[in-house]
Amino acid sequence: DAETLQYLEVNDAAVSATGYSREEFLKLQVTDLWPSETADDVVSRIQALRPHSPAHSEGRYRLKDGRLVDAESDFRILDFRGRKAVLRVTQDVTERKRAEAEMSERHRLATMVADAGAALTRNETLRQGLQQCAEILVRDVDAAFARLWTMNRDGDVLEMQASAGMYTDLDCEYARVPIGNFRIGRIAESGEPYLTNSVQEDSWVGDPEWARQEGM
Q: Distance (Å, rounded) from C-alpha 178 to C-alpha 100?
Protein backbone atom coordinates (compact mmCIF):
# COMPACT_ATOMS: atom_id res chain seq x y z
CA ASP A 1 0.00 0.00 0.00
CA ALA A 2 1.45 3.37 -1.03
CA GLU A 3 0.30 4.94 2.22
CA THR A 4 2.53 2.65 4.29
CA LEU A 5 5.66 3.82 2.48
CA GLN A 6 7.24 6.09 5.05
CA TYR A 7 10.76 7.36 5.49
CA LEU A 8 12.72 5.56 8.19
CA GLU A 9 15.95 7.56 7.90
CA VAL A 10 17.43 10.31 5.74
CA ASN A 11 20.94 11.65 5.38
CA ASP A 12 22.12 15.24 5.61
CA ALA A 13 22.29 15.58 1.82
CA ALA A 14 18.56 14.83 1.48
CA VAL A 15 17.74 17.34 4.18
CA SER A 16 19.89 20.01 2.54
CA ALA A 17 18.61 19.31 -0.98
CA THR A 18 14.89 19.38 -0.18
CA GLY A 19 14.66 22.09 2.46
CA TYR A 20 12.91 19.84 5.00
CA SER A 21 14.32 19.29 8.45
CA ARG A 22 15.10 15.70 9.42
CA GLU A 23 12.11 15.70 11.77
CA GLU A 24 9.78 16.94 8.99
CA PHE A 25 11.19 14.39 6.56
CA LEU A 26 10.46 11.43 8.80
CA LYS A 27 6.79 12.44 9.04
CA LEU A 28 6.35 12.42 5.25
CA GLN A 29 4.90 9.67 3.13
CA VAL A 30 7.21 8.65 0.29
CA THR A 31 4.64 10.00 -2.19
CA ASP A 32 4.60 13.47 -0.60
CA LEU A 33 7.77 14.53 -2.41
CA TRP A 34 6.64 13.47 -5.86
CA PRO A 35 4.04 14.79 -8.33
CA SER A 36 1.32 12.19 -8.94
CA GLU A 37 2.71 10.92 -12.26
CA THR A 38 6.17 10.41 -10.75
CA ALA A 39 4.84 9.08 -7.43
CA ASP A 40 2.90 6.33 -9.18
CA ASP A 41 6.06 5.18 -10.96
CA VAL A 42 8.16 5.32 -7.78
CA VAL A 43 5.59 3.36 -5.77
CA SER A 44 5.18 0.68 -8.46
CA ARG A 45 8.95 0.21 -8.69
CA ILE A 46 9.29 -0.06 -4.91
CA GLN A 47 6.45 -2.57 -4.69
CA ALA A 48 7.98 -4.65 -7.50
CA LEU A 49 11.40 -4.81 -5.88
CA ARG A 50 12.96 -8.18 -5.19
CA PRO A 51 16.12 -8.90 -3.16
CA HIS A 52 19.29 -8.38 -5.18
CA SER A 53 17.29 -6.76 -8.01
CA PRO A 54 17.75 -2.99 -7.88
CA ALA A 55 15.39 -0.67 -9.77
CA HIS A 56 15.84 2.71 -11.41
CA SER A 57 13.40 5.57 -11.87
CA GLU A 58 13.50 9.00 -13.49
CA GLY A 59 11.10 11.84 -12.82
CA ARG A 60 10.66 15.00 -10.80
CA TYR A 61 10.39 15.59 -7.07
CA ARG A 62 9.06 18.55 -5.15
CA LEU A 63 11.13 20.62 -2.73
CA LYS A 64 9.64 22.05 0.44
CA ASP A 65 9.23 25.46 -1.26
CA GLY A 66 7.19 23.87 -4.04
CA ARG A 67 9.81 23.88 -6.78
CA LEU A 68 10.16 20.76 -8.94
CA VAL A 69 13.56 19.37 -9.86
CA ASP A 70 14.57 16.57 -12.21
CA ALA A 71 15.83 13.46 -10.44
CA GLU A 72 17.08 9.95 -10.96
CA SER A 73 16.60 7.36 -8.22
CA ASP A 74 17.99 3.90 -7.59
CA PHE A 75 16.21 1.48 -5.23
CA ARG A 76 17.26 -1.72 -3.52
CA ILE A 77 15.95 -3.84 -0.67
CA LEU A 78 17.98 -4.01 2.55
CA ASP A 79 17.62 -4.89 6.20
CA PHE A 80 17.22 -1.79 8.38
CA ARG A 81 17.46 -2.46 12.11
CA GLY A 82 15.79 -5.80 11.66
CA ARG A 83 13.10 -4.51 9.33
CA LYS A 84 12.74 -4.99 5.61
CA ALA A 85 13.28 -1.60 4.03
CA VAL A 86 14.10 0.03 0.73
CA LEU A 87 17.19 2.14 0.20
CA ARG A 88 16.62 4.96 -2.25
CA VAL A 89 19.50 7.05 -3.59
CA THR A 90 18.29 10.11 -5.49
CA GLN A 91 20.40 12.45 -7.58
CA ASP A 92 19.34 15.92 -8.71
CA VAL A 93 19.95 15.96 -12.48
CA THR A 94 18.25 19.29 -13.24
CA GLU A 95 21.40 20.97 -14.55
CA ARG A 96 22.32 17.94 -16.64
CA LYS A 97 18.84 17.80 -18.14
CA ARG A 98 18.98 21.52 -18.89
CA ALA A 99 22.36 21.17 -20.58
CA GLU A 100 21.10 18.21 -22.62
CA ALA A 101 18.03 20.19 -23.69
CA GLU A 102 20.17 23.17 -24.70
CA MET A 103 22.50 20.94 -26.69
CA SER A 104 19.54 19.27 -28.40
CA GLU A 105 18.05 22.67 -29.24
CA ARG A 106 21.36 23.93 -30.69
CA HIS A 107 21.59 20.78 -32.80
CA ARG A 108 18.00 21.19 -33.99
CA LEU A 109 18.58 24.82 -34.98
CA ALA A 110 21.87 24.01 -36.69
CA THR A 111 20.17 21.27 -38.68
CA MET A 112 17.35 23.62 -39.64
CA VAL A 113 19.78 26.31 -40.80
CA ALA A 114 21.75 23.75 -42.80
CA ASP A 115 18.57 22.42 -44.42
CA ALA A 116 17.45 25.94 -45.29
CA GLY A 117 20.83 26.78 -46.78
CA ALA A 118 20.73 23.63 -48.89
CA ALA A 119 17.21 24.50 -50.06
CA LEU A 120 18.34 27.91 -51.26
CA THR A 121 21.30 26.53 -53.20
CA ARG A 122 19.86 23.43 -54.81
CA ASN A 123 16.65 24.91 -56.24
CA GLU A 124 16.61 26.56 -59.63
CA THR A 125 14.70 29.68 -58.53
CA LEU A 126 14.68 31.81 -55.39
CA ARG A 127 10.93 31.27 -55.00
CA GLN A 128 11.36 27.49 -55.02
CA GLY A 129 14.14 27.74 -52.44
CA LEU A 130 12.13 30.06 -50.19
CA GLN A 131 9.08 27.80 -50.43
CA GLN A 132 11.16 24.88 -49.24
CA CYS A 133 12.55 27.06 -46.42
CA ALA A 134 8.99 27.89 -45.30
CA GLU A 135 8.16 24.18 -45.27
CA ILE A 136 11.30 23.48 -43.22
CA LEU A 137 10.25 26.12 -40.66
CA VAL A 138 6.79 24.60 -40.31
CA ARG A 139 8.29 21.14 -39.91
CA ASP A 140 11.16 21.94 -37.55
CA VAL A 141 9.56 24.46 -35.18
CA ASP A 142 6.07 22.96 -35.37
CA ALA A 143 4.69 26.27 -36.62
CA ALA A 144 1.06 26.68 -37.66
CA PHE A 145 2.27 28.43 -40.78
CA ALA A 146 5.29 30.27 -42.16
CA ARG A 147 5.47 32.96 -44.83
CA LEU A 148 8.41 34.61 -46.50
CA TRP A 149 8.55 37.93 -48.34
CA THR A 150 11.24 39.76 -50.28
CA MET A 151 11.55 43.51 -50.77
CA ASN A 152 10.79 44.89 -54.23
CA ARG A 153 13.46 46.81 -56.14
CA ASP A 154 12.11 50.18 -55.00
CA GLY A 155 12.26 49.11 -51.36
CA ASP A 156 8.70 50.13 -50.58
CA VAL A 157 6.72 46.88 -50.95
CA LEU A 158 7.09 43.36 -49.59
CA GLU A 159 6.26 40.62 -52.08
CA MET A 160 5.25 37.22 -50.73
CA GLN A 161 7.42 34.45 -52.16
CA ALA A 162 6.45 31.45 -50.04
CA SER A 163 3.75 30.19 -47.68
CA ALA A 164 3.52 26.83 -45.93
CA GLY A 165 1.47 25.19 -43.21
CA MET A 166 -2.19 26.03 -42.76
CA TYR A 167 -1.96 28.73 -45.45
CA THR A 168 -0.40 28.07 -48.86
CA ASP A 169 -2.12 30.69 -51.04
CA LEU A 170 0.34 33.29 -52.39
CA ASP A 171 -2.44 35.31 -54.03
CA CYS A 172 -3.99 36.82 -50.90
CA GLU A 173 -4.29 40.21 -49.22
CA TYR A 174 -0.73 39.85 -47.93
CA ALA A 175 0.77 39.07 -51.36
CA ARG A 176 2.02 42.67 -51.66
CA VAL A 177 2.41 44.60 -48.42
CA PRO A 178 3.53 48.25 -48.44
CA ILE A 179 6.30 48.95 -45.94
CA GLY A 180 4.66 50.07 -42.69
CA ASN A 181 1.37 48.29 -43.34
CA PHE A 182 0.12 45.26 -41.45
CA ARG A 183 2.38 43.61 -38.91
CA ILE A 184 4.89 42.26 -41.42
CA GLY A 185 5.21 45.68 -43.08
CA ARG A 186 5.81 47.31 -39.70
CA ILE A 187 8.46 44.70 -38.87
CA ALA A 188 10.19 45.42 -42.19
CA GLU A 189 10.03 49.16 -41.49
CA SER A 190 11.57 48.82 -38.02
CA GLY A 191 14.18 46.26 -39.10
CA GLU A 192 13.74 44.49 -35.75
CA PRO A 193 12.32 41.04 -34.87
CA TYR A 194 8.90 41.03 -33.26
CA LEU A 195 7.92 38.38 -30.68
CA THR A 196 4.76 37.99 -28.62
CA ASN A 197 3.14 35.43 -26.35
CA SER A 198 -0.15 37.39 -26.19
CA VAL A 199 -1.43 37.15 -29.74
CA GLN A 200 -5.10 37.68 -28.89
CA GLU A 201 -4.36 40.94 -27.04
CA ASP A 202 -1.64 42.11 -29.44
CA SER A 203 -2.40 45.51 -30.97
CA TRP A 204 -0.29 44.52 -33.99
CA VAL A 205 -2.65 41.67 -34.87
CA GLY A 206 -5.03 42.95 -37.53
CA ASP A 207 -7.81 40.43 -36.81
CA PRO A 208 -7.98 39.56 -33.08
CA GLU A 209 -11.25 37.64 -33.60
CA TRP A 210 -9.42 35.32 -36.01
CA ALA A 211 -6.68 34.84 -33.41
CA ARG A 212 -9.31 33.88 -30.82
CA GLN A 213 -11.01 31.45 -33.20
CA GLU A 214 -7.67 29.80 -33.94
CA GLY A 215 -6.83 29.58 -30.22
CA MET A 216 -3.52 31.39 -30.67
A: 43
